[in-house]
Amino acid sequence: MSLLIRTCAALALTLSLPLAAAPAVMHSQFLPPDDLTLRAETPDQQQLLQVTEYAVVVGNQRQSTQQPIPVTSPLMIRLKGKPLNKGATLSQVVLNFDAESKSLKKPVYDEKSKTLTLSYPVAQYRVIVDLLRNDTLYVQFLSYANGHIWADLHTGAVRAR
What we know:
The chain has helices at residues 2-21, 125-134; strands at residues 45-58, 61-62, 71-72, 75-83, 92-98, 108-110, 115-121, 137-143, 149-155.
């Protein structure tokens, strides 16, 4: 009987090892509830960056070869920082702000340039600049085998005053 219990315990331990060895999602406490279980699996890719500097760029371009002449003024913030998780290669994040679209573009990570591009509605600009000025900011990017992509900007846990 004792041998049977030890064998079962060893088997249970062996079967649980691959689950324990799977890397946990860093900063998972900042993810919203996963009601649709889109993030049930371990992410294929995880990038976590602590923002150390930023630059605001307000552009102005006029394409004179088109009629009528479109005038655009792109607004973006370029973030740089240090990767926090093992194997992370992310070094730069570009935040584009869009005032006209009805839907946002999906987050895109370009491994060649090590740049993550995120799109936000222009209404979020003031919130993000306020976070950059007053808190430590992190950028998180997760991609899953099922095609789901999650990206966010978040602060660390801050005590209420």
